[in-house]
Amino acid sequence: MPEWVNVVIRSTSLIVVIFIIAKLFGKRHLSQLSVFEYLIGLVISVIAATVSIGLITPFWHGIIGLGIWFIIPFLLVLLAIKSKPVRDLVRGKGTVFIKDGKVMEDNLKKEKYSSDDLLQQLRNKNVFQVADVEFAVLEADGDISVLPKKEKQPLTPKDLGITVAPIKEPQTVVMDGEILYEPLATGGFSVKWLETEFEKLGVSVENVYLAQVDSFGQLTVDLFDDKLQVPAPQEKPLLLATTKKMQADMEIFALSTQNKQAKQMYTKNSQKLQKAIDRLTPFLSD
Amino acid sequence: MTVASQVKQSLASIKSIEANLSSLAIRSQSKEAQQSFHETMEIMHDIQKDLHTRVGEMERQEEQYKGF
To answer: What Pfam family is a match, any one (chain A) (predicted)?
Structure first.
């Protein structure tokens, strides 16, 4: 057998092996690897490359080396999932850089971080003033995590005491002009319903690039033809407005009637409507 | 527009609100939203009944407002 055939066979089988190894190590991003894991990856790829073009003879020595460089780190990874000390050893621990708003200079020195490095990392996190930081830690993967002081944190509905409606993930029901049946069924909608909604909007399925249904069953679409204007869903705001008008009407009727009993009935219903409006507002306002 | 016809119009509106809420309750994904829509729908139904009775009274008192 000529040598080049051997190279073809070895290379092809090694591609399969490397693919399996990569799959077994999971989905971690390159930038999240520790230096140790990075070096292991390098060694494995160098061994695979040299074995595949036949620099290592016999072939089996290369495979043994590859196996050991794969199995030991793989066992370490498995062990690290189970045990905290092993994890700290293999993946490293985070280092606290800022605590109670004070910079820990000793920890900076330990991680070979200059004050400029710290400022740069903080700026990466959109923090330009050290005084705004309550707590910052250098993670094991070299990224810095910042907890800003409470008054410097983004405002949330909870801070404002606003009740908001819970939402679920929207379902994408049309892609590239084709109906996706599975997400449609997950959302609990039928094809018939979708067709009716498209009819209401005055578009046909073929012209729809993307269509999504939100957790209130409202359909939003993007068309291939960008010159066409698609109306935004009006149902919820309209419903809220009608309910408010209804409440106002009840008050007017209560004021204008002479009948005592009717007056009472209108007043009671106006109050009921006000309660209903308060209850519905978080769900109906976008 | 007479008061009677205004009340009749309101009766129609409240029916439409009730139907809209019912449709939203069916289509909503989250339990909390479903419950809110459903409960307000029931309130609307009570109001609708009250208005209906009132329309009946008005028609009885003043024959000329009968019908739509």
So the answer is: DUF421
Q: What's the number of domains chain A is made of?
A: 4
Please report the pLDDT score of residue B1 as a whole number: 65
Cβ-in-10-Å burial (0-12, 13-18, 19+) of A160 comes to exposed
Domain stop point among A119, A152, A185? A152
> What ipTM score was computed for the predicted complex, to two decimals?
0.89
Q: Is the pLDDT of residue B68 over 70?
A: no
pLDDT at position B67 is 67
- Output the 3-class SS for chain A: CCHHHHHHHHHHHHHHHHHHHHHHCCCCCHHHCCHHHHHHHHHHHHHHHHHHCCCCCCHHHHHHHHHHHHHHHHHHHHHHHHCHHHHHHHHCCCEEEEECCEECHHHHHHCCCCHHHHHHHHHHCCCCCHHHEEEEEECCCCCEEEEECHHHCCCCHHHHCCCCCCCCCCEEEEECCEECHHHHHHCCCCHHHHHHHHHHHCCCHHHEEEEEECCCCCEEEEECCCCCCCCCCCHHHHHHHHHHHHHHHHHHHHHHCCCHHHHHHHHHHHHHHHHHHHHHHHHHCC
Please give the residue range of the domain that contains residue A254.
236-284
Answer yes or no: do B30 and A215 touch at CB < 8 A: yes
Please indicate if any CB of chain B lies within 8 Å of the CB of A273: yes
User: Which amino acid does the sequence have at B42?
Assistant: E
| A contacts of B57 (beta carbons < 8 Å) | 262
Subunit contact B47:A167, Cβ cutoff 8 A: no
Residue A165 is assigned to a structural domain of this protein: no
Residue A158 domain flag:
no
User: Alpha carbon B39 to chain centroid distance?
Assistant: 14
Residue ranges of chain A with per-residue pLDDT less than 50: none
